[in-house]
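Schema walk-through. Below, the input block comes first and the output block second. Nothing else is stored per chain. Lengths vary across the set, and this one has 390 residues.
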Amino acid sequence: MKFFIPFMMLALIFASCEAEVPEGELPANLEEKKTLLREKRIALKTLSDEIKTLEDAIAEQDPDSQDAGVLVTTAKVEKGDFAGYVVLQGSVTAEDLTDATAEIGGRILQLQVKEGQSVSRGQLIAVLDVETYKKQREELETSLGLANDVFERQKRLWDQNIGSEIQFLQAKNNKERLEKSLATLDLQLSKNKVYAPISGIVERVVLQSGELAGPGVPIVQILNTNELKLAADVPENYIRSVSRGEQVEVAVPALGIERTLPVSLIGKTVDPANRTFKVEVKLPANPDLKPNLLAEMKIKEFVAKDAVTISMDWVQQEVSGKRFVFVLDENEDGDMIARKHYVEIGDAYQGTVVITKGLVGGEQLITEGSRDLTDGQIIKIIENQPANNG
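--- output ---
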């Protein structure tokens, strides 16, 4: 019997040494791992119970020292119509770019405008040298004077039945031909001044003073700034999102201009190079608008009727991929707690997302402070805010 006790002591010491595991390392044996896990769970429960008992004891003696919960803000979930837009880059362009041309040929004596100058319809643009036409007119006048004399003589002779009829008709025809030539030359002389065909801005001066202008050759190009439009290239996947006459939002950031205007033109073809089609919107007259200004066009991509929408910042995601939010709730003791609600999302625009499942509207959504919460955790509200404000 005297040997039994030392033997038992040695066995216990040997077993304890064999089961001892270095800190931070897991046992190699499966059964040892399960044993260690049970021990840790028991220890955790014991520690949690002790902490809860201690918190209750402190709250009974000094309620003010007890933290009433995690500080959060909440917002009421609202329902309503929600629209998403696609913002496209475009530019301001002019409807008309018209040439001011001469109707006759001649050297430019005076050019009355310069590039960038505003002109009105009918304003004088250039004066042409018509000295050659004037000399031709003098020659015609001399020839017409002689033709008149010949015709008068032939007429007197013909009235007296002297001479042949053919001589009389030739004299008359020659006189009338010269009269018509003179009238044509006078008309050409009246075309020595070139006027602006439209109102606008002189975009380009093609010919300068002293240069020779020909019939139909542009002297200046005039841009009609009273009829401007916004043109944008729209990707083909939005072809069903826009139609002629539909209201779209347009903006010219440099001028701070924002308008809602109807689509005036939709291109009939898709550019094979970039897979886009042309969309244009006519712009109201504005003296500050200039061609080639950068502009934006917002086309409505989708509309969700009577939808629940919240900020995307308030939607969290588990490792499994499931999305959730925290909603204000109340436990059996009347404490406010955070309750996890799994949600499904739909379309989104500018940080706001449509909730298709999980919220019905009217809930108090936990916003600020929700990242540090667990399901059922006691909370304390410090502020409320609109649910659609991120």
